[in-house]
Prior knowledge:
Layout: E1 13-17, H1 21-32, E2 36-40, E3 56-57, H2 70-77, E4 85-87, H3 93-104, H4 108-135, E5 148-152, H5 155-172, E6 177-180, H6 182-187, E7 197-201, E8 205-206, H7 209-222, E9 226-228, E10 233-239, E11 242-248, E12 251-254, E13 257-260, H8 270-273, E14 279-289, E15 300-302, E16 307-312, E17 315-324, H9 333-344, E18 357-366, E19 372-375, E20 382-386, H10 392-407
Parallel strand pairs: 1-2, 1-13, 2-9, 4-17, 5-15, 13-20
Antiparallel strand pairs: 3-8, 5-7, 6-7, 10-11, 11-12, 14-17, 14-18, 15-16, 16-17, 19-20
Amino acid sequence: MNEQTQQLPQQPNIVVIGGGVVGAACAYYLNKSGAAVTVIDRAMFGSACSHANCGFISPSHILPLCQPGAISSTLRTMFKKDSAFSVKMRFDLELFKWMLHFARKCNHQDMLAAGYARQALLNSSRELYQSLFESGELQNCEWETQGLLFVHNSEHHFHEYAETDKLLHKEYGLAGKAFAGEALNELEPALKPCIAGGWLYEGDAHVRPDKVMSAWKSRLLANEVQIIENCEFRSIVSKHDAISAVETSTGTIKADQVVFATGAWSSLLAKQLQAKIPIQPGKGYSLTMPRPTSCPKYPMIFEEHRVAITPMQTGYRIGSTMEFAGFDTSIRERRLNLLLNGAKHYLKEPTAEPIQEKWSGWRPMSADGVPLIGRLPRFQNAWMAAGHSMLGLSMGTGTGKLLAEMITSADTHIDPKPYRVDRF
């Protein structure tokens, strides 16, 4: 289960480009292997998509978005005013190619294969997080393990989801617990009494993402990992099939190995890295506020409205939606209102005042729902860890450990083949 790579020099200098959760985990496990690691980020460490997502660490999120029927269901809803899914119409050749690849993967066989790949990383990461929090390596992250509740407003959707749960159990050994009507209200009193039912996946957990990133930063600095913020990657310095340094906005940094944990920006590097990188930015939104008086116990996903709820120890978050609008930095109030209106359908007390943060971030959406983890084909010492879609936090630790194992030619704890960068 090893990937071929060159022999590393004594205490190699490894540059990790990207200070999100995936880059942080890569830096941590590479440092543990004995490497000298430098992390650079174009802004502040942990300030992009890792900052204010919903904080789910979700072994239940096995199935990718590319499923049979996904194209037709998306087309039916994307032009509705209140649709959680949105595409900004424009001429964008890379988006068009991405959509074609996505469409080709919307079949049962490819869905199952993607699910196996995703599950391996999800389960690995869940176990690694547990170990990191229990050992004190990462502290004050508001780690909670109640599970995740998939809530359905209508009887039809609740019973229809039973087929999904059946598939998860049959193919992946994962089963949820069903709660209907009054049983759901007994489990979660914050829900309105008219909600049809829900499915609880007890193995899921959640954290407060900004505190996770603060904990990663503290741990990396304590372990003598260098973090350079406001340092934008510009180009590589290479000879033949190896990179010797990276050019940045603050100067040249020499490197024995380079890891591109560049999230949604990865596709912009395709020409320079001479690789196919079918990743598109899928903008998600969130609102953070104090905990309501009647605050949910469980984190929840309202399946029919595509809205997620995260009750944190020091706050409360409503998030989700998916907007393919390129690298548009604007925060659209209409998209935020979708979150608020969605929550009102389900919760007795859906919000609290004041709203402390309105946020959006670009999820790195891979075309097949599986991240790209491994060596870039053109170079012997360049690696990618990107394309985790909506699961960067959920898959972060497993990704970091796997990449460190590949770079150091150690036995890998999961099979790296499904994540090959050259599979496209």
